Amino acid sequence: MRETTTKKFRIAAEEFRDFRKSDDATLVTAREADAWKQAMLEKAKLSNNTVKQRLQNLRTILQWARQHSLGELYPAGNPLDIVKAPAYQTVASDARTFTMEEAATVLLAARKESAPELRWLPWLSAYSGARINELAQLTRRDFFRLDDSWFFRQ
């Protein structure tokens, strides 16, 4: 498994363990998982989609444990299978974008950076509208000059 995948599963497992104040996976119940989901939603720090992903990550961990115990763990099935994921909610685009003041703060801070990626990625994003993760994958070969102007290929 990739390190990022392992990290994602570990975060879900540790947060659930801390919530239920127990690391005994043999005693996990659907009620505990549903209470964890409700607590995450009430805090309103995570999007519904992130809460859904955390539940799915925990469900995957428990399913892996169930399979490796040949069904001895959770013989009635994965307890998280009956926990309903939160509904998908769209977020207005203006809630996800920078205000002009925030954009100015980021771009002015980028001017002071000496690392090329920290200096130029915010500016490329501001001018092109591309996402940082898309721009970060560009290589020297993706940039070209036409007359007096510079361009890049995605």
Features:
154 residues; mainly alpha; 7 helices; 5% strand
Give an account of the 3D structure.
The chain has 2 domains: 3-91, no CATH class; 98-152, no CATH class. Helices cover 56% and strands 5% of the residues. It is built from 7 helices and 2 strands, in the order αααααααββ.
Level of helix content?
Answer: 55-70%
Biggest beta sheet attributes: 2 strands, antiparallel
Structural class: mainly alpha
Low-confidence stretches: none
Q: Can you list the strand order of the major beta sheet?
A: 1-2
How large is the radius of gyration?
A: 22 Å
Q: Termini distance?
A: 28 Å
Set down the secondary structure blueprint.
Elements: H1 3-20, H2 30-43, H3 48-68, H4 93-96, H5 100-111, H6 116-128, H7 132-135, E1 143-146, E2 149-152
Helix pairs in contact: 1-3, 2-3, 5-6
Describe the structure concisely for a colleague.
This protein is mainly α. The chain has seven helices and two strands. It has a two-stranded antiparallel sheet.
